Amino acid sequence: MAQIRLDNIRKSFGAFEVIKGVSMDIRKGEFMVFVGPSGCGKSTLLRLISGLEDITSGTLSFDGQPVNRLSPSKRGIAMVFQSYALYPHMTVYENMAFGMKLSGRTREECKARVEQAAGMLQLSPYLERLPRQLSGGQRQRVAIGRAIVRDPKVFLFDEPLSNLDAALRVATRLEIAKLHRGMHDTTMIYVTHDQVEAMTLADRICVLRDGVVEQVGTPIELYETPNSIFVAGFIGSPK
Ligand code: ADP
Ligand code: MG
């Protein structure tokens, strides 16, 4: 069964329709990548899945239950944005622990979770630093760590690497791939306009164009049998 099902999802801002009837399934543990040109609706779609925006029409369900009206905090989702928005006056440790404050965990549990996530992301030496004392790549890893400690069922990433320089982008991309391999049942939904990121990270890729799904498939399927010149152009195959 699909973990996340989008059934004819539409979203308008005023009279302007941005998402124009998207239907698709995302499986538990899957790494699903949304690609498409700037302005095609990728961020909006993530915000609809997370509950940060209301759906205009259609049904979003998690594990078979409609969640259109469920608040973001009840959806078991963590989101990582391209601008990592850390609290500047808090240490790395405090930034990562902050999201757990409301969860009712003990101080010891919080500490253990932060230390485990820091280890996974190679942040252990930096826990007492402030964000401004870190590189861009380290800051983005803190933002990912902050999501990990909440133990979400689903991670949403919105172009998390786009503010990093080329070398860091590759390193952080490998880190995210490793993270997914290490968290077996954790679903990742990842938005990018970078075709290399899409091809290397995805179990499946969904190509969006102007609020509509052009094609969904594995990287190989899209590369070998794109169903339009648009998809071929995006994936880089010679159609
Ligand atoms: P992408 O992430 O693919 O670049 P977005 O989802 O951010 O695209 O935006 C899709 C379209 O929706 C754009 O034309 C954008 O201007 C518009 N849009 C996004 N958010 C809002 C909003 N809150 N109000 C009005 N228009 C919006
Ligand atoms: Mg966007």
UniProtKB/TrEMBL annotation:
Domain annotation ABC transporter: ranges: 4-235
Main location group: membrane
Keyword ATP-binding: yes
GO molecular function (one): ATP binding
Cellular localisation: Cell inner membrane
Keywords of the record: ATP-binding, Cell inner membrane, Cell membrane, Membrane, Nucleotide-binding, Transport
Topology in the lipid bilayer: Peripheral membrane protein
UniProt similarity note: Belongs to the ABC transporter superfamily.
Protein name listed in UniProt: ABC transporter ATP-binding protein
Shown residues in whole-protein numbering: 1 to 239 of 342
